[in-house]
Amino acid sequence: MNWKKVFYAVFVFVIAIGAALTGAVAGGVAVYRAIGNQQASSLPADSATIEAQTVSNTSQELVVSTTEMVTAVTRVVQNTGPAVVTVVGTLPGQRTPFGVTAESTVSGSGVFISAGGYILTNNHVIEDAQAIMVILADGSEQSASLVGTDIYSDLAVLQVSGVVPAVALLGNSDALNQGETVIAIGSPLGEFMNTVTVGVVSATGRSIDTGYGYQIQDLIQTDAAINSGNSGGPLVNLAGEVIGINTLVVRDSSSGTVAEGLGFAIPINTARAVAEQIIEKGYFARPYVGISWQSITPRVAAVYRLPAEYGVYITQVAENSPASQSGLQPGDIIIGVGETTLDATHTYINTLFQYSPGDIVTLAVIRDTSQMQIEVTLGEAES
Q1: What pLDDT score was predicted for residue 192?
Q2: Can you name the CATH fold of 285-382?
Q3: Where do the domains of the chain lie?
Q4: Quick one: which of 136, 142, 237, 343 is 20 to 30 A from 159 by CA?
């Protein structure tokens, strides 16, 4: 074997990789230098507040070597990895005409966000689970209890009573830049625990339609490899800060074209706000109107000859609810909330969630053939 040729090939490959990553990671390395070997900080066990870590930028010109870039990634993984867990939920058997099926399990990922044993993950990872267990990075297992969930942001908070090996630093997702290098850590397929993948921030502010009448909004898009089982794991920047919670990946477009590298994460600023309230109250409060409804689309409007192409058709009004107290009736069509007209990009749920319990909001309503304005004082409901 010609070792000189092999060495030359490896040398060229490393230089090429270094040139491609230098611009993306320069800022991260600068931050990493600023924090040095600082370990992930912990919150008091009795604290319900999850504090962001503030890192100052440097304006000094840097010369970044390939070794420094690799070191930045590996040290981030070494510091954050112990805070990442595999989440395993046990689903009850389902009753069928032939009897009850056996129990089954689902798995995802999570990350410690507090020394009090609180773990942030996705709601869809533990939804309907009757028992939850977490597997730590060292392979040890602990049982976990569900503190609360928010289905609309697809977030859940768990808690363990055992030893917390590490707590992840939480960053500021509002400061993300397109092209910034990010690292996803999780357990794809529930088997390959604490797998690390590297990519960039492809875009921010993305929205994904859930198919249930609302969108998950303001998502971070990344090309870091995310697969089933990565859900709930952290997306980390080169400063070692969690800036997102991985939640889904898109494989197929609406046209049937197979897509690759389309992963999405919930911004940590959103996740932090939801988690803090769940830890404090046991749930995340959403504004409550007190109606059952069906979404209206142009196709639905055409089939049923409705007077609006977008909005929601009220099928039921709950007794003693804000809706009943304001005079809303079954058969009413809500076409606007506050100053926002409902359309293809402004759904009823997402528009309503811009308000808080206790707010007074004006609804634009069509009743029979007349349009009217109805004021509703929003109540509070667990999501």
Answers
A1: 85
A2: Pdz3 Domain (2.30.42)
A3: 1-53+63-93+103-283, 285-382
A4: 237
